[in-house]
Amino acid sequence: MSAAPDVSIVIPVYNEEGILREAVTELLDGLASVRAALGEPGLGFEIVLAENGSRDRTAELAQHLADEREEIRTFSLGEPNYGKALRRGILEARGKYVICEEIDLCDLDFHRRALEHLRHADCEMVVGSKAMKGASDERPLLRRAATKVINGMLRAALDFRGTDTHGLKAFHRETLLPVVEACVIDRDLFASELVIRAGRAGLHVLEIPIKLHEKRPPAINLVRRVPNVLRGLAKLTYVIRFGGKP
After folding, report:
1. Per residue in 198-220, is it b (16+ CB within 10 Å) or e — as a string?
2. pTM above 0.85?
């Protein structure tokens, strides 16, 4: 195995055969600009493709990419579970810093800004917010509305004081590892639990605005996700508020 990288980019992937190769290739090529902007030409990156239950050729293509490029690693869960895949990817990451990405975003500007904050010890976690002042969210109206509803529910149930939890985030892996291991929710709300628990643990969570333009429609229908989100929110509220067992 090669030496541990400085940064691990963890990307859950599900039914992404149409954009996987192009997106990963563009991300790898674009990392040169991140190194240049940070003044670190030798900064090492790895990409961890966390495949979870795809019904198309995503798992096969991810393995082909890993065979072709030493910077890429992949694993397959065998079930469609975004949160479980993201959690395992974080646990398997080898970098000092971890960036949680989305295959249809690959926002290099977020990578640069987040790493600047983390390397200068401004915070322990950076969240890319699509809802704060200065952000630009070009998703359909229904998806933007769903984000507002979920954030409102998190504020009411768990005193969440930020503007976003799902999507792009970056953090010191060693510092956040106990928080990751304490999380009990998978699927859609793992990312929310991670951000909320980090804040409740007294860690400095910094939000920065992002420009969001997705490359394709979501892989899972929004309406189909609602029951899982509601169950996850009830479970998360019980565990955090009342110290119950999951």
Report:
1. bbeeebebbbbbbebeeeeeebe
2. yes
